[in-house]
Amino acid sequence: MAPKILLIRLRLIGDVILTTPAIRAVRRSCPDAHLTYLVEPHAAAAVAGNPHLNAVIVAPIVGGLARVRADARLAWRVRRARYDAVLDFHGGPRSSFLAWASGAPRRIGYDVPGRGWMYTEQVHRPKGHRERHSVENQWDLVAALLPDLARPSPATDPVEMPEAPAARDRVRARLADVGVRAAGNIVVVHVGAGNEFRRWPEDAFGSLVEALVTAAPDRRVILTTGSAQASTAAAIKRVAVGRGVPAEAVDVWCDLDLDELRSLIGRARLFIGGDSGPAHIAATTTVPMVVLYGPTTPGVWGPWRPPALVTEIVDAGALPCRPCDQRRCEPGDFRCLRRIAPEAVMVAASRALAREAARTGTDA
Questions:
Q1: Quick one: pLDDT at residue 162?
Q2: In the chain, at which end, N or C, are there fewer CB atoms within 10 A of the end residue's CB?
Q3: Do domains 4-145 and 165-360 have the same CATH topology?
Q4: Which residues face 270 on adjacent strands?
Q5: Beta pairing partners, 262
Q6: What is the architecture, at CATH level 2, of domain 4-145?
Q7: Residue 130, pLDDT score
């Protein structure tokens, strides 16, 4: 009988994307296995179309007593499925409970204090920072299940998120509505961030947009972020327009779902953004990328994609407080990201476009 394997990573978007090399590796080693992925709604689209999975279970997000009932139902569901093995890439209270509740003969997770007993096999995860990529850290769990597995590399096991056909059609129609041809000169700039540590200043983004449009007047810059930060994107557009950028050269798209965002980025000439879920979505495309790093480091959270694809990193450089846990800024001014100059990002953008032109034999 084919083995049944449950993979758990509840959130966040980037973290879920970074498990996709492991998904592929398990499928490659166990071609007949039934692979199920357990994830929460916000990040579900990142794996919903994954070709290596047989099923995706979406864990509902509810509060209070409803959460207890929902988790009890979910626990009973995974118990009845009779999985042979569970890999818990998440390691949080909810994921470890569900791994334990599955009753699987093999339950593999990290040696998290207070929860390690829920696994039949614990993988050591050192405390503190180490310059080892997140994909490699998660690979340790897979290697516990499949000890003959070769070490991962971005060339052989890149991140992946296939384009959803329905999202492709919606994005094409929307671009046509704003006058952008299929091969339009689009630059996607993701301006959102989940916390203060990763927010590049609005004025800096405005200067970057100004430089992008000045360098290529036919360029269309699309600012993306979540709906909760729509005002930030609108403010950045006002800064750029106030500096002479034509209003029609900048669009604000803050209502995209993950599939639509992936489709939009896939049609761009360039993606620019901070270390975030959308940057990891961009890494699943072949589009050139410029990624800004402040409190985090590219050695751990860099785009995990084939080295032949164009990726430019703009890094804050060495600081005594960097990297940090993003709970309290010791200097108090978030200098790791905010001291990155728009000029440095524009230089990286120009270099990325030139490298892509050389790689593909097209115009920059």
A1: 97
A2: N
A3: yes
A4: 187
A5: none
A6: 3-Layer(aba) Sandwich (3.40)
A7: 84
Work out the number of other CB atoms within 10 angstroms of the CB of residue 76.
11
Q: What is the pLDDT of residue 122?
A: 97
Q: Domain spans of the chain?
A: 4-145, 165-360
DSSP state at residue 80: H
Give the pLDDT of residue 265.
98
Per-position b or e across 145-176, b if 16+ CB within 10 A of its CB: bbeebeebebeebbbbbebbeebbebbeebbe
Name the β-bridge partners of 16: none
Measured CA to CA, the distance from residue 114 to residue 34 in angstroms comes to 30
What DSSP assignment string belongs to 170-219?
Answer: HHHHHHHHTT--TT--EEEEE---SSGGG---HHHHHHHHHHHHHH-TT-
**CA proximity to 266, closest of 147, 160, 121, 145:** 160
Instruction: For the chain, give the percent of residues with pLDDT over 70.
Output: 100
In whole angstroms, give the CA distance from residue 192 to residue 232. 8
Buried-exposed string 10-44: b where 16+ CB fall within 10 A, e elsewhere: bbbbbbbbbbbbbbbbbbeebeebbbbbbbbebbb
Mean pLDDT of 96-118: 97
**Contact criterion met (CB below 8 Å) for 71 and 93:** no
What pLDDT band is residue 18 in, cutting at 50, 70 and 90? very high
Distance CA 8, CA 88 (A): 5
Is the pLDDT score of 364 beyond 70? no
Closest by Cα among 281, 263, 267, 132 to 192? 281
Tell me what the pLDDT averaged over the chain comes to: 95
Residue tagged 């978030």 (tokens): 334
pLDDT band at 267 (very low <50, low <70, confident <90, very high): very high
What are the contacts of 344-347 at 24+ separation with CB within 8 A?
Answer: 344/314, 345/204, 345/208, 345/272, 345/290, 345/292, 345/314, 346/208, 346/211, 346/212, 346/215
165-360 falls under which CATH superfamily? Glycogen Phosphorylase B; (3.40.50.2000)
Mean pLDDT of 204-216: 98
Does the structure show a pLDDT above 80 at 231?
Answer: yes
Sign of CA dihedral 250, 256, 260, 265: positive
Radius of gyration of the chain (CA): 21
